Amino acid sequence: MIQYYTRFFAFALGLYFAQILIFDHVNLFGFANPAVYVAVLLLYRLDMDQFGFLLLAFFYGLLLDLITQTAGAHTIACLTTAFVRPKLAQFSFGNNVDNPATLFTQTLTNNRLLYLGLMLLIHQLLFAFMAYFSWQHAFRIVLYGVTNALFSFLVIAPSISLFRPKK
Predict the structure, then answer these.
(1) Domain that holds residue 27
(2) Distance between CA atoms of 136 and 118, rounded to whole angstroms?
């Protein structure tokens, strides 16, 4: 258990710095940048403590908000994504949701892609709404959210295969 938390903390710290130093400066079409830090919320084991996970999501989003000066958009998006994660996992994986290796080995690729896509779409739409915070910009919010979710999906989905456990 301690080994898992140590590896996960190093992974989260690495993605945090990669997001700040590299991915926040990538602008596809002038506005779309991938949110690779969401992979921390996606890859946390489903059978672990959920209260600790909500605290992790809150502080992870808060630290990103402090660095990027986004006035709570990352915090609200991360916390809401962490809160709906068990229901989305149950919807995507069905009965296999309590197995620790669910995301990596014992599900179909379609289920994993559905889970990743829904989580990223919810996160990015919430983030865009909180960043603009106006119904007058509804088209821009949807465009920004969907484009960033797709761009993040194209970066995160292939990367997950790198973190599969060895057989």
Answers:
(1) 2-163
(2) 25
- Longest pairwise C-alpha distance within the chain: 51
3-state SS assignment for residue 32: strand
How high is the pLDDT of residue 133? 80
Cβ proximity of 140 and 23 under 8 Å: no
Residue 119 has pLDDT above 70, yes or no: yes
- Chain-wide mean pLDDT for the chain? 84
> Can you tell me the mean pLDDT for 49-59?
90
| Gap between the Cα atoms of 99 and 92, Å rounded | 13
The pLDDT confidence band at residue 96, using thresholds 50, 70 and 90, is: low
How many folded domains does the chain comprise?
Answer: 1
79 contacts 50 by C-beta, under 8 angstroms = no
What's the rounded Cα separation, in Å, for the pair 97 and 2?
A: 22
If we measure between CA atoms, which residue out of 43, 45, 26, 44 comes closest to residue 35? 26
pLDDT value at residue 7: 86
In the block, which residue shows the tokens 């007058």? Answer: 136
